[in-house]
Amino acid sequence: MSPTPALLHSLFHRFKGNISKVSGTKPLHPTRCAHTISQDNNSVLSLACNQRYLFSGSQSSNIHVWHLQDFSLVTTLQGHRGSVLALTVSKDQRWLFSSSGDGTVRVWDTEKLVCTHLIQSCHDVGDIFSMVYIDSSNTLYFGNQNTSIQWYDFSDPQSQGKAGEVPVIPMNPRSSTYQKSKFFESPSYEDLVEEVDRFPGEENVIKCVIREKNVCSNAHNGYVYCLLHAVDIPNVDGQVIFSSSGDGDVKIWSVQESGLQLLNVLSGDIDKGVLSMALSEDGYLFCGVQGGDVQIWDLETNQMIRSLMAHSDDVLAVALKGPHLVSASADGTIKIWSEEFEFVECMDDHSGIILSMICSPEYLITGSSDHTIKFWDMPSPANIYEPFRRNSVMTDVPSSDTLLYVLDKWISTRTISGNHKYKEECRRGARFLKNVLQQLGATSRMIPGAPGRNPLVYGRFSARRSSNVGVKKIPTVLVYGHYDVIYAQNDDNQWLTDPFKLTGRDGYLYGRGTSDNKGPVLSSIFAVYELLKEGLLDVNVIFLVEGEEESGSVGFVDAVEQHKASITMQIQSILI
């Protein structure tokens, strides 16, 4: 009996080697520009789309609405008094949010194409560079020129147009004098209303103000250029927001009812402000920075694992399209990178700075200072695996069949330690093992190794609960192993079979790591899984698998010492 497709799809989507067998590092066909539209002699500063429309924000303060079916201009949304710097669409695609250099945020009904709300901060925030909307809490977050992150909760009574609910707030966070926001104050309020009502329908727009409690002042030491929302990132459950700034740092915030709680800081170079971000399903954070680099962070270990010298000028946008990373720059080029972070191709059809970039199901879409929007038809090699689900459940299939399938995939990953050429593949091999452990019911994570060295993989299977034995009395067994292998050269074809392809011959399995040490590690893991599945696991079992054994176990002792509180607690036996 073979493993079911659902099980295999869930287990192995995050193994990145599968696509390279189909396409390698070269696309099936070169990316081509399928269509170009012009935007009123104005730079295209921001882009967003739903299934029906493309929305483009301009330097002239207008938002153009384009029909995605025939690329025709549907209408122009007016109301902002400054450049439209950011656009985002709600998950249900009903609402468009826009932020501007005029220091305001507007909410637009995407069906009626009218403005419903106008939101202003309680402070002078300057330009509003970035936004994210969290549908589950109906809250909009935005990053500002004054280094703050602020948010507006649409459950606030203001959202219903109740003028009496205008908050009493200070005009300056350092001021002790409290007063009504100048946004609603006479005569400034009357002047604003006169300005707002110059467009048809503006009299129906609900005016709102950010409350003082919804301000995170000095979130960074520089402009907050980009915000990114995610759920259940590695080692962190729940809603999180990433913020990036001109100070070179990326901050990770937990979204709480009481506000934002800082979880971690990915410290960068103060001379390389982070201008754009994108997050992959497997926990890589890509950051476009000033000067032209793309930084790659592994959120399993919160380490910068690579910095691509991608462009000759600032990287203003990054995105993920299928298996590829796409970067766009002020140097006027768009570059595509493989899942191994190798350069694939470059498009230079724009004649100006690439200011904005998004992905629709059909196209990669870019906006430029050359006043055009381009729709790119990118190659999309078939991926036979469905998206990985963090909480997917193993189905009842023979473990022996699944074990062989997992071993086949793991053997094909060239986890050769001590060779910089295979550093990324070693990390993918570690991540693959971590995901297998997780799918089989273990608590798993990656532990940073020595600088420049491969991470360790930790997995823990917990014993079944018994009424006769207290939790503290359950013994714990630690199983040691390693996932790295020795280099195997087959250029002269002296091997009977490909060393990195699992091959069965005469009742034996052949392949690099089959006996040392991937095969034994997986056999032990699946044996424990069988006990767990049958309810017979009476001990806790910890797997500690390193990636530098073939290179002298560099950094192993230090890593264990740093994490021994969680690794070695109450261990009775160690199996090597």
TrEMBL record:
A Pfam family the protein falls into: Peptidase_M20
Record GO terms (molecular function): metal ion binding; peptidase activity
InterPro entries tied to this protein: Cyt/Met_Dipeptidase, Peptidase_M20, WD40/YVTN_repeat-like_dom_sf, WD40_PAC1, WD40_repeat_CS, WD40_repeat_dom_sf, WD40_rpt
Biological process according to GO: glutathione catabolic process; proteolysis
WD repeat spans: 77-111, 237-256, 308-338, 347-386
This protein's UniProt keywords: Hydrolase, Metal-binding, Protease, Repeat, WD repeat
Protein name: Uncharacterized protein
Source organism of this protein record: Lichtheimia ramosa
Classification lineage: Eukaryota, Fungi, Fungi incertae sedis, Mucoromycota, Mucoromycotina
